[in-house]
Amino acid sequence: xxxxxxxxxxxxxxxxxxxxxxxxxxxxxxxxxxxxxxxxxxxxxxxxxxxxxxxxxxxxxxxxxxxxxxxxxxxxxxxxxxxxxxxxxxxxxxxxxxxxxxxxxxxxxxxxxxxxxxxxxxxxxxxxxxxxxxxxxxxxxxxxxxxxxxxxxxxxxxxxxxxxxxxxxxxxxxxxxxxxxxxxxxxxxxxxxxxxxxxxxxxxxxxxxxxxxxxxxxxxxxxxxxxxxxxxxxxxxxxxxxxxxxxxxxxxxxxxxxxxxxxxxxxxxxxxxxxxxxxxxxxxxxxxxxxxxxxxxxxxxxxxxxxxxxxxxxxxxxxxxxxxxxxxxxxxxxxxxxxxxxxxxxxxxxxxxxxxxxxxxxxxxxxxxxxxxxxxxxxxxxxxxxxxxxxxxxxxxxxxxxxxxxxxxxxxxxxxxxxxxxxxxxxxxxxxxxxxxxxxxxxxxxxxxxxxxxxxxxxxxxxxxxxxxxxxxxxxxxxxxxxxxxxxxxxxxxxxxxxxxxxxxxxxxxxxxxxxxxxxxxxxxxxx
Length: 528
What we know:
Layout: E1 12-14, E2 17-21, H1 24-35, H2 40-54, E3 64-70, E4 76-81, H3 91-96, H4 115-126, H5 131-134, H6 136-144, E5 146-147, H7 150-157, H8 160-164, H9 167-173, E6 185-186, H10 189-201, H11 204-207, H12 210-220, H13 228-232, E7 237-239, E8 242-246, E9 249-253, H14 260-272, H15 283-303, H16 314-317, H17 320-327, E10 348-356, E11 361-369, E12 376-377, E13 384-385, E14 415-419, E15 422-429, H18 435-447, H19 453-458, E16 462-464, E17 470-472, H20 478-486, E18 491-493, E19 501-507, E20 512-517, E21 524-527
Helix pairs in contact: 1-2, 2-6, 6-10, 14-15, 14-17, 14-18, 15-20
């Protein structure tokens, strides 16, 4: 139990439904849908639509979506709603035109947006309400305006120069050439009209017709490759989640093209080496988690891609023999300098989770990748196009090399933990590359260290930056940092918090849902 003399909050406990999102307006949207008789699928889609308006730098209908859904009987479904590179994309063109690596902004980083098709397939198969009801709050906030919350305002202001450089972004994402201040009202009328069109005519109104034509024309007008045919061909895929055992739970992740296998490799290493048994806030724990993560991420950046081009299967990467070979490189005393660190791109994402009275649980993540995606926004329809192409590599022969019609290795990952054949914990941690590390750290807090859902999310985090130096959040004491330095790490203050997460624990013993929401964002958990 937390110290009530200190800042913090208790977990939310309720019986009939629970939602946890990164913004209070989205949580309220989800709860209203549940109270109106919708199920967790309906509520998750509605909350995501609201987030596309009120957290516009983090997510949008021009991005991608992944989902894990656990039905009341324990049946589990995975959905990969990531778009593909334009069919005309050619890595040789990029190399010939002076790109040493994939661009992170602009039209040459744009991939087809997969989220809207994923929402549609999820709603058609498992939902009970139409987009007209589910988009109602999002349309209202887009047209009538919403209050800009503190974390949103802080992040928005960082990207003003880039937004000024694109005509559509300057029109729709700035006010008098600047970002809105916290507490002020902001509107997205063009995006509201686009959402109305999709609510009326369905997802095909997004992928075909005037909206699709403008998306393609906006990209092609600046020299990019996205076509109307690329948009019409978008299709999310139902997939079987990957699973490993940890702490008496079966932890589920979406398979590649997502990086969920990275989290599972990390959990397997943690279980094999007893990392969960180390003292909670100790240097030993942080050191071993970081060292195991460096190995898992190195595997990711060498081997994980669109499954059609992977040279090793996820099952091989999670096998006992492979985990043993990785674990042989771990030292409890010293940092292993021979591990090749991947480059860490900074990205922006929203994760949310909803559980309903039937104990249907939805783990849902939606993103435009970097803040405001590619920084390219369609002038009429107000859609921020994602820069997910930035996740490809231009290294010839690499499994994740850019290719026409190919999915990039993807950072956004929802998670679910099952126990006794039913959903027990629906959770996720935002933060681009941090996400696998966040999944393992937060889940270990819950399972190994007896924390409740809120405490598990609150606990201080550590991760490396682009240069390999560990960025320590403010809650990690000076002595722990010194101990890490003695083990061969370089440590500095984190310039920003690591990610942000949500969690719902399904407490079958007492008949309640227990929710937590990360204080690193503006959001909250609410139940009824």
